[in-house]
Amino acid sequence: QVQLVESGGGLVQAGDSLRLSCAASGHTARGHTFSDANMGWFRQAPGKEREFVAAIDVRGGTTYWLDSVKGRFTISRDNAKNTVYLQMNSLKSEDTAVYYCAAEYGMGYRLDRESEYDYWGQGTQVTVSS
Fold it and tell me: What is each CA distance from 104 to 13, 68, 129, in whole angstroms?
């Protein structure tokens, strides 16, 4: 079983930065580990549906960006630490949400789709005051 644990959320002011981390442990039934997973970050604001933010594939060479965070957020991974990061700069009040990381152990064709992911973390709250 794969476990994902997010951390790094908190209350910040507009314009500040935060770095979210998602630590993975365990393996799938077929023995796949973190280095085999395509990873994604999603977020859910109060009263809204969960939305895709960014994703990074197994080689770290491909990333996908939600338009509203392009130029402000950076996704990265450290396979030696089994961790994926989301660096968030120039935060805005509209970035307030619970942020979730997710792992996908398939072909990674549509990493912007929630349904593609196999495992999810419990989420970490990010609140940006204006």
Answer: 32, 23, 32
